[in-house]
Specification:
The complex is a heterodimer of chains A (183) and B (192). Chain A has 183 residues and is of the alpha+beta class. In chain A, 26% of the residues lie in helices and 43% in strands. Chain A starts with a helix and ends with a strand. With 192 residues, chain B is mainly beta. Chain B is 9% helix and 61% strand. Chain B contains 1 helix and 12 strands, in the order H-E-E-E-E-E-E-E-E-E-E-E-E. The chains are: A alpha+beta (183), B mainly beta (192). Strand 1 (24-33) of chain A pairs parallel with strand 2 (43-44) of chain B.
Chain lengths: 183, 192
């Protein structure tokens, strides 16, 4: 019976060491993005306000990680040239959004978070959720996590073309993130 | 955290190994099948209802090898495998599907009963193991705790039926991915 005590003690220590793993969850938040037409000299800003979500406000201190991300929607290339779409993030809610790619890239706090999503000439594509999740960059995930955990949770997204002259529509867009948090 | 888990495993192994000589070795083998579902994963915070606590279900199967070497406790190495359905949701009027995980788990349960003996058994158990989650271009492997309740009924000295409900906590740093399982299986005992 002495050895049984060791066994129970060992299992007990392990369970207690588990801490908040018992009371955690992966919480999904999603934000609709307004339809827009994007050109290299006519960017469209998409404000994302985590601070509008009560669950985020209540559990901000408990956020441990981001377990999933996606940028969704239907993209239409309005030109006869192939190009790719990227998404950049500025970690503030901009009252005066950038209108040109040059302004966006000149901002040292701007980070490319997603891409590249290839569009053929005059092609319309609705992105797949799985494909979109894999297009998030490591720097992008880190930037969003940092903003969610240490910032105010409000930031601005911009979809741009990867090179040259571009013109594309984003329709029925959505930004989805899953926060790994204690509850 | 890892130091505590190592300590827990060491203490459990110490208990198991030092007691080996005190109990006649009895061994069985079992196979099980059932349902599994993610618990509190990808829950929508804006429109949460209790029904959303469980994600898309999947089938689960596996094998177990109960070994009776310690009084009161049966040690049971196991292998389990699950495949979950895709998670389909609508965002801004478009429908999307996220590929479900394939889960493979290996470890050992500690059953607080002699499940190799005849008769009706109702037993709690805890377990430790390693779980691998996989879907296209994504793979996670982490330490896992299991907690469960089981019910066993022996048809004779060799064959018994076991029904179990179990919660798996796949530890991801300071949080966990949880899965709930309900399974039924048959067990064959090599020694009467």
């Amino acid at each position: 019976m002495k050895s049984l005590r060791w066994l129970i003690l060992g299992l007990g220590i392990g369970i207690l060491a588990s801490g908040c793993i018992l009371t955690s969850a992966q919480i999904q938040l999603d934000f609709n993005i307004d339809d827009g037409t994007v050109t290299s000299t006519g960017l469209v800003a998409a404000p994302i306000q985590l601070s509008d979500e009560q669950e985020y406000v209540d559990h901000k201190d408990d956020i441990k990680n981001i377990s999933d991300l996606a940028f969704l929607g239907k993209f239409t290339n309005n030109t006869s040239n192939a190009f790719s779409v990227e998404v950049w993030m500025v970690p503030t809610l901009q009252t005066v959004p950038y209108t040109t790619e040059a302004e966006l890239k000149a901002d040292p706090s701007a980070v490319k978070i997603w891409g590249n999503f290839a569009l053929g000439p005059n092609e319309t594509k609705q992105i797949d959720w799985n494909e979109s999740a894999h297009l998030f960059t490591k720097a992008g995930k880190d930037a969003i996590f940092n903003e969610a955990k240490n910032g105010d949770g409000d930031f601005t997204l911009y979809a741009i073309g990867s090179s040259g002259t571009y013109d594309f529509d984003v329709k029925n867009g959505a930004f989805v993130l899953v926060l790994d948090a204690g509850i | 955290m890892k130091r505590w888990l190592a300590l827990a495993a060491a203490a459990a192994l110490l208990g198991a190994s030092s007691a080996m000589a005190t109990e006649e070795l009895r061994v069985g083998v079992g196979a099980f099948y059932g349902l599994s579902a993610p618990v509190l994963q990808d829950v929508d915070a804006s429109s949460f209802s209790p029904g959303d606590a469980l994600g898309e279900t999947g089938s689960e199967w596996g094998v177990r090898v109960p070994i009776k070497v310690i009084p009161v406790v049966t040690i049971e190495p196991y292998y389990a495998q699950s495949s979950y359905d895709d998670n389909t949701q609508t965002f801004n009027n478009f429908s999307y599907s996220r590929e479900g995980w394939d889960r493979k788990a290996i470890g050992a349960n500690f059953l607080f009963a002699n499940t190799l003996a005849t008769g009706f058994k109702f037993y709690p158990y805890v377990g430790i193991g390693s779980t691998k989650l996989e879907r296209t271009d994504e793979k996670l492997t982490d330490f896992t705790w299991n907690f469960g309740l089981g019910m066993g009924f022996s048809f004779n000295e060799k064959i018994s039926l076991h029904v179990r409900s179990q919660l798996d906590l796949m530890v991801t740093d300071e949080t966990s991915r949880k899965f709930g399982d309900v399974t039924a299986g048959l067990q064959y005992n090599f020694q009467p």
